[in-house]
Description:
This protein is α+β, with helices and mostly antiparallel strands. The protein has 2 domains: 2-98, Phosphorylase Kinase, domain 1; 103-214, Transferase(Phosphotransferase), domain 1, CATH 1.10.510.10. It is 31% helix and 28% strand. It has 6 helices and 13 strands. The chain has helices at residues 23-29, 66-73, 106-113, 118-137, 187-192, 197-214; strands at residues 2-4, 7-9, 19-20, 30-39, 42-49, 55-62, 83-88, 92-98, 103-105, 140-141, 150-153, 159-161, 168-169. It has a 6-stranded mixed sheet, sandwiched between helices. A 3-stranded antiparallel sheet has the order 9-11-12. A two-stranded antiparallel ribbon has the order 1-2. The longest helix has 20 residues, at 118-137. The model is unreliable at 1-16 (pLDDT under 50).
Amino acid sequence: xxxxxxxxxxxxxxxxxxxxxxxxxxxxxxxxxxxxxxxxxxxxxxxxxxxxxxxxxxxxxxxxxxxxxxxxxxxxxxxxxxxxxxxxxxxxxxxxxxxxxxxxxxxxxxxxxxxxxxxxxxxxxxxxxxxxxxxxxxxxxxxxxxxxxxxxxxxxxxxxxxxxxxxxxxxxxxxxxxxxxxxxxxxxxxxxxxxxxxxxxxxxxxxxxxxxxxxxx
Length: 217
């Protein structure tokens, strides 16, 4: 557990990789930029690390388990966005995340090309599969795999899984609560109100692959 002031965040360090920030440290170390996106679980801003000019993203989220899940999977694996450090506020948490200098989410990446050639789709999809396998090996279920939650580094072609706001811990028993994007939910949830984590993930991955090669949901 990481103590910050009089409160506690349920995050464990991975060999000292993740660091806590003070509010003064945040202001001194980063320059905030434009809004990158806003969703049901928080807002994401572009920022610059002043010490070396590196681009980062700063995400403001409610105090929930997202930072705990991200800390579990953010272990240097290239296919998952890396958590660099965080700041705990009274009601929210600010997470400093890596951000490739030239990047685009996969939704916009596909739309700009209408659809992806098979070889390109195959390579990106392989990377996403490896990222998902890494997460499940860490005991984390993402639950919202879709093009908008995959970032493509335009310089290297590396795909990164982002946004664990709908995530949860992986379990062998059925889930009876759905979090994620409804149009990617498996049919057993629609018909019966339950689903298993790994099969539901495979269902959403199938929709993702179809979007890559056909250009439509």
